[in-house]
Amino acid sequence: MTDLALDTRSGLPDALRVLLDEYPRDGWEHDPDFDGLIRFWLDRHLMFRRLMAEMRDRTEALIDDKVEPGRYLAAVSRYGGMFVNGLHEHHTIEDTYYFPKLSQRDSRITKGFDILDSDHHAIDGHLNAFVERANAVIVQADDRSQLQDAAGAFAAQLAELERLLNRHLLDEEELIVPVILKFGTEGLG
């Protein structure tokens, strides 16, 4: 059996990718039904990826002494808050509204939505660690040496969160977009 835990999987099993075979990723934007909800969903995912990249890049700049600490700390606070709050809201809407509706559209992929829901719970733990690590950086504002050390630990934690989030977002996109392309958005609001 393939390990389906977010921390260790390399993708969804082939049995859950059956609709992706019918609607391959490279054809999504050319599909006449690719718009509205799908575009909004993918834009949200892109926003989360960009926020992660921005925090990673700024943390590396601080470590390399290429940004003033005050500017860095303000950016981490701002982008970190946007990231955590936005991701919690996004996952809550998916878990309570979209996943139950989409999972009913094709019984072959129902297990995929259980996996995505489990991912959300796993990501919550990583988000809590992210907040703790970000706060550990912020409280070092007055000591450049300790700030550098805290930023180094934060960079490592960001890299792991980014890896996990990218795995989850990719799997989610490859499960959900084909479902919507095949069955449409009726009943999804």
Would you give an account of this structure?
It is a single chain. With 189 residues, this protein is mainly alpha-helical. 72% of the residues lie in helices and 0% in strands. The chain is built from 5 helices and no strands. It is elongated and about 55 Å long.
Global geometry: elongated
Number of strands: 0
Order of helices and strands: HHHHH
**Structural class of the secondary elements?**
mainly alpha
Q: Give the biggest sheet.
A: none
What Rg is obtained from the alpha carbons, in whole angstroms? 19 Å
Q: Let me know the average pLDDT.
A: 94
Cα distance spanning the termini: 36 Å
Instruction: Assess the beta-strand content as a share of residues.
Output: under 5%
Low-pLDDT parts are: none
The total of helices stands at 5
Helix content: over 70%
Short description:
Helix content is 72%, strand content 0%. It has 189 residues and is mainly alpha-helical.
Highlighted features:
single chain, 189 residues, mainly alpha, elongated
Question: Which secondary structure elements does this structure contain, and how are they paired or packed?
Answer:
Elements: H1 18-22, H2 37-63, H3 69-103, H4 110-138, H5 144-183
Helix pairs in contact: 2-3, 2-5, 3-4, 4-5
